[in-house]
Amino acid sequence: MPTQFSFDHVFRADSPTTILAAYFDPSHLAMQDAVAELEDRKVTETRDDGKTLHTTWRVVSQRQLPAIARPFVGKGGKLAYFESMTWRRADDAVDLVVIPDILSGRVKITATYKLEKVGEGQISRRYAGSVTANIVMVSSRIERGIVEAFDESMAKMAAVTQRWLDANAR
User: Fold this and answer.
1) Which of 19, 37, 55, 99 is most buried by a 10 A CB count?
2) What is the C-alpha to C-alpha distance for residues 29 and 168, in angstroms, rounded to an integer?
3) pLDDT for residue 96 is more than 90
4) Are 84 and 97 a contacting pair, CB within 8 Å?
């Protein structure tokens, strides 16, 4: 049974498009990666048909995994994962899928960023989705751990996005 999550935040911005574009901007991603302790973000796929923009990155965590998990990630003991985002422009939404590069996709995060204007210069973002871990005996513990990490980092990541918006919004 997947573990659900939902986080809400209101940004100072002129439009949902301004914020959604930031999620695909390399300078914004670099700021977020620094705070999230991620490195080596590389685009593995991108396509834009005008209605949707889809990009997939491979990203590596700078954090050392617990000793028990290291054998599953290979050399260096650092977790890599694939992050795919699809911006549905007409819906002011981004669909997100994150799959760690271990365990044949048995751990997966699916979510949506949904944005809407709620006032002058006020854009509400709901980040909602689920974490699924199909690993016998430890699935729920892994899922809860991921959601707890989201809970701890969400305010920091929103603050990074707001700083970027304040400095770069056109």
Assistant:
1) 19
2) 13
3) yes
4) yes
- Give pTM, 2 decimals: 0.84
**How far from 96 is each of 100, 118, 154, CA to CA, in Å?**
13, 23, 15
Q: How far apart are CA 44 and CA 50, in angstroms?
A: 20
Q: What does the chain come to in residues?
A: 170
Convert the chain into a string of H (helix), E (strand) and C (coil). Answer: CCEEEEEEEEEECCCHHHHHHHCCCHHHHHHHHHHHCEEEEEEEEEEECCCEEEEEEEEEECCCCCCCCHHHCCHHHCCEEEEEEEEEHHHCEEEEEEEECCHHHCEEEEEEEEEEEEECCEEEEEEEEEEEECCCCCHHHHHHHHHHHHHHHHHHHHHHHHHHHHHHCC
110 DSSP β-pair partners: 97, 130
Say whether domain 3-168 belongs to CATH 3.30.450.20.
no
Task: Specify the amino acid at residue 147.
Answer: V
Query: Which residues make beta-bridge pairs with 108?
Result: 132
Q: How far is residue 106's CA from residue 68's CA, in Å, rounded to a whole number?
A: 17
Q: Where are the domains of the chain?
A: 3-168
